[in-house]
Amino acid sequence: DLLSAQPSVSALPSITAPADQLSVQVLNGTDTAGLARKVSDVLYNEGWVIAAVSNWAGEPVKKNTVYYPEGYADQADKLAALVDGETAPADATLPQNVLTLIVMTKVASN
Questions:
Q1: Which of 49, 54, 79, 88 has the smallest number of Cβ neighbours within 10 A?
Q2: Rounded to whole angstroms, how far apart are CA atoms 67 and 95?
C-alpha cells in the first residue's frame, strides 16, 4: 500500500505556539553563511514558529532588528529580548503577517 509508505506527520516534532503568536521570518543581514539558519534553530528551540529563513537584501541595519506588524509590538519585544536586538514597525515593503528578524550577530542559545 503506497499510503503506508509515507512518513507520518505525527512523527515530526511538535511545538505548539499560542494561537495569536506570529511566526518569524529570519533573514541574514551579514555575509556570514548560515547565520540565519543558526539563529532560527535557537528560536525554534525557544518555542517560536519559523516561517522562513533567507537573506536580507534591503538597507543594512546596525543590530539584530525585529520588524513587526501593527498590534504585535509585545511579541516583537519578547523576540528582541531573546536576540539582544531592537524593534521597529514593519513598513509596507515587509510582510504584515509575520515578525521579520534581520540578523546581524549570533544569538546565544540557552
A1: 54
A2: 9
**Tens digits of residue pLDDT in 63-80:** 999 999 999 999 999 999
The gap between the terminal CA atoms of the chain, to the nearest Å, is 44
Could you give the CA distance from residue 61 to residue 105 in angstroms, rounded to a whole number?
11
75: how many CB neighbours lie within 10 A of its CB?
20
What is the distance between the alpha carbons of residues 36 and 41, in angstroms, rounded to a whole number?
9
Cβ atoms of 13 and 49 closer than 8 Å: no
Q: What is the pLDDT of residues 16-58, one digit of tens each?
A: 455 578 999 999 999 999 999 999 999 999 999 999 999 999 9
